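Contributing new records

If you add data, match the layout below exactly. Sequence lines come first and carry their own label; structure lines follow with theirs. Keep one chain per record. Anything else will be rejected by the validation script.
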Amino acid sequence: MKTLLKNTPLVIGLGLLALIVVIAVFAHVFYPVSPWQSSAIPLLEPFADDTLPLGSDMLGRDVAAGIAYGARVSLTVGVVSTIISITLGVAIGALAGFYGGVLDNLLMRFTELFQTVPQFAMAVVFVAIFSPSLTTIVLAISLVSWPPVARLVRGEVMSLKTREFVKAGIVLGESEGALIFRHILPNAVSPIVVMASLMVATAILTESALSFLGLGDRNMISWGYMIGASRTMLRDAWWLSVFPGLAIVITVVAVNLIGEGFEKALNPQAHGERKA
């Protein structure tokens, strides 16, 4: 516990993320009125009204309420899409790395097929083909995010399967599934955890970019939508874009700090530290 408390990036990142999670979970408590509902005069400046500390937009909607409810969308997309991507990438990478040969070639060619097209462009095409919704956005981000995970896991598995403890398991007659899930993958957790934290941040940015382009879920308010809807009023109503933008920056920085903290904790030798 003391070691974790000394891990400054991890502590700061977890603190910021915890605050954002609390705001997202209790958004309906902090702001009982729907973020789509007008609650004040249009374009009310920040701090001009105690009940609307971040001001209102061109339709009189509470900017702070929009940011609070938008946190739900960003966190949901970031976490769910990362879980799907990690699951798919680990499965493909583990099979390719463990069995090698023809299966490895087939799976890696399949992986390269997804890497030939820029990730964001593929996500835009996928969401545009289907009706934009939270589900299609999550699936689109998952679809373009798993190849790096597969390559990472493949390399780790190829390295670990030659270790003595795996050979000992083979001698003892353990099944291939047991070798993969009980011996190999647990020893490859560290880089996967670090990559997962960075993927959450990337997913949040991707969702924000899609919403900015008008490809977000029209039934749910998001930070990207708020910025996109107010981009033509940046000079006259700066707060409409600045505050959602700050929310994105703080969330992404928090997740990146967590990733850096985990990398530092799981691989102390790379940072010049030694365990006592």
